[in-house]
Design brief:
The longest helix is centred in the N-terminal third of the chain and has 19 residues. 40% of the residues lie in helices and 20% in strands. The chain is globular. The protein has two domains: 199 residues, Isopropylmalate Dehydrogenase, CATH 3.40.718; 129 residues, Isopropylmalate Dehydrogenase (3-Layer(aba) Sandwich), CATH 3.40.718.10. The chain binds nicotinamide-adenine-dinucleotide, 3-isopropylmalic acid and manganese (II) ion. This is 3-isopropylmalate dehydrogenase.
Amino acid sequence: MSKKIVLLPGDGIGPEIVAEAVKVLEVVDKKHKLGLKFEEELIGGSAIDVHGVPLASSTLEKCQAADAVLMGSVGGPKWDTLDSSIRPEKGLLKIRYEMGLFGNLRPAILYPQLADASSLKPELVAGLDILIVRELTGGIYFGEPRGIRLLDNGERQGYNTYVYAEHEIERIGRMAFEMAMKRNKKVCSVDKANVLEATVLWREVVQSLSREYPEVELSHMYVDNAAMQLVRQPKQFDVIVTGNMFGDILSDTAAMLTGSIGMLPSASLNKDKRGLYEPVHGSAPDIAGQGIANPLATILSAAMMLRYSLDQGEAADAIEAAVGKVLDDGYRSADIFSEGCTKVSTKEMGDAVVAAI
Ligand code: NAD
Ligand code: IPM
Ligand code: MN
């Protein structure tokens, strides 16, 4: 039976890195007889240029009917001055919301070969393996009311709303506990319960859910402290569960511990474990078009896609092992380059992974 994968390369370095992930998928497809069928669509700025909107409804329908979606990244200076309702990022937010992708898994794993590339001392990051479970369809990203309004005194005021309903907290909390059960059985729930009521409720719901997971050790931490602890002693964490905005910020920090944001993949899942897979980084306008972006985050996102949405763990393992091999062999894109290694382009890195498979 064939498996339909919608590709959404997007903007900036998106098309460059997705092309490499597709090359890798094509070889594992042949080797493991997965029956992958690819269909490419537009999202973000490139969709605005063609359709006038960052996510056409026909694209959304195709994604909803597919077995999985693999995305690059959206956004760029060309579209930064557009009204916020049609910015490239709105396309990504819309697909996450419409597909019900509430659970965003962002694993931060240090490949031992990259210990030198981490911004922290090697002993602080050796063996690092953290999973950030970010809520993705709620919180301040989606809360109403929102906007910019005119005040009586004539000045404008921008406003957003931080909201979480109990069911939203419970389902993301459950995903985190389930993940922890398969790992080191520790969950740290990150909130700002000393200031924000929405996160007082968050803490309460996660705490009561923990009764169903007596084997999992639950702790709570304020987000400011968590940001500090992530760079002080990152290995204290196993699973971190948090809301949409805090998860966005903390995962970029966690990325740097692994050497580069170009190494961090992600899976965004809904209740049926169908999902969208994308690197944690953005469209990197500063290096777009130069052929130097690191494609490994996207290649590793493709591996997550095989594991979580297509139930092809072996094929996923094969991709991850190939990435390890390529790093062993000393291949490095510019962002993770260090003395004595071989500097490679985006395409050469993709070729090396293909060869290692
Ligand atoms: P960014 O992640 O695009 O870039 C931050 C820095 O990291 C840049 O210096 C960039 O060159 C570098 N970088 C990122 N990915 C890399 C890779 N694979 N290899 C090597 N270096 C890499 O973040 P930004 O600059 O804040 O945002 C740029 C645009 O991307 C904005 O329009 C933003 O909205 C968008 N964005 C999109 C996504 C997404 O599509 N999921 C995520 C974050 C930002
Ligand atoms: C991410 C990005 C997005 C987010 C933007 C582009 C909407 O930063 O995927 O981390 O904030 O979720
Ligand atoms: Mn982000």
